[in-house]
Amino acid sequence: MSDTSKTVKSDTTKVEKTGGVVEDQTTVAPADDPTAAPVSVVDPRLLVREEGLKGYVTEFKRKVKGGELGSLPVVIGLIVIWTIFQLQNDRFLSADNLSNISYYLSATGMLAIGLVFVLLLGEIDLSVGSVSGLASTLFAVFVVNHTMNPWLSLILTVVTGILIGALHGWFFAKIGVPAFVVTLAGFLGWNGLMLWLLGDSGTINIPSDSGPVHLLGQSSFFMDQAIIGAYLLAGLGVASMLFGSFGEQRRRRAAGVPFRPTSEILLRVGALAVASFAAAAVLNNAAGVSNALVIFLAALVIVDFILRRTTFGRQVFAVGGGIEAARRAGINVPMIRITVFAIAGGFAAVGGMFFAGQTASATLSAGGGNTLMLAIAAAVIGGTSLFGGRGSVWSALLGMLVIQSIQTGLDLLNMNTSIQYMITGGVLLGAVVIDSVSRKSQKAAGRG
Fold this sequence. Notes:
Layout: E1 10-16, E2 22-28, E3 39-42, H1 44-51, H2 53-65, H3 72-88, H4 95-120, H5 128-145, H6 150-175, H7 179-198, E4 203-205, H8 211-215, H9 227-255, H10 262-284, H11 291-309, H12 311-321, H13 323-328, H14 333-359, E5 361-363, H15 371-381, H16 394-412, H17 417-444
Antiparallel strand pairs: 1-2, 2-3, 4-5
Helix pairs in contact: 1-2, 3-16, 4-11, 4-14, 4-15, 4-16, 5-6, 5-7, 5-14, 6-7, 6-14, 9-10, 11-12, 12-14, 15-16, 15-17, 16-17
């Protein structure tokens, strides 16, 4: 059957809404059955404005039926995991244990942020674990063997990670070597270089007072363990969301397009405030908010803005959604690919510095073991699609919360590492199954 026979039929009409604003209502025939009855697609903000709570329920049912589950499965899974472990060991939800979870998720989480970019293209990067290990080793060599300034060493290390990622992207985008093969070669090659730099000892101890290592150490906290630090971060997050939401509402209202009602904005901000200040209170009952977590959260906010609010971010989604369509839209596809892999390499190097901060050393195990698999699993479990074009950088946080919770909970129960691997593998498979079923449901509903 020719491609033209699968053309999606759509019809857009103008609907007069309350307040004199003219809004768009689109009817779309499912792509796999052009003869089927059109499906009405209405902006959810219109439903809320007209129907209030009923509009929320209607939109929620539509999303579930259409396979648009978002982060719901992850949140439900996290609640189930925490409930099970708390019932098995009442120390699981203690302040100290939750503080440990929040600290140790940041290193692999940094790798997962970079992988989100790659996955949005529908590709994979198998080298991030080796690049992170090489980064920690390079930093140790610069600081210990060559007595270089720690902060200059940090900059050189991160730049090296970016250049390595760009090199992978160049082979992929310009030469046409599959990303899987290029990054697999990088996985082996950069790991070999790391082993060569470490030498026979296999370990380089880094002075714990070396700038970045001290900053990212487990005993280093935001605002020197001051209680106000955690609450200040929570307040900044809530205020940012509040002003950002009202700013978007003002712009959309001025443009005459659907916007979130004030009641919904206040509800969302209120929910964030409860969660943020509750987390701050819990962490303050331990030692406070670690610098590693603060930097990780800051990276999430910045990257989320780039992906959702900039031309580059929209181009990344466009390339992941369809390469040929992106080319026809005038997007420089090779450059986007090279840039994305460079970003992944940069975040891998930063993650390597986090690992160095945790151990105050560069070792043979840095970036090895299951680091790569956990970083990929975090992005996918959190909701970023393996098929490209769909996902969010916040999936790195959600996925790492799930993985680190499983690891920490099983450690409390003195379970063998093999059990951790099997459970994490099962959760990863479940996430991919949900993603696959969700895509099929969206196609059936004419939204795929």
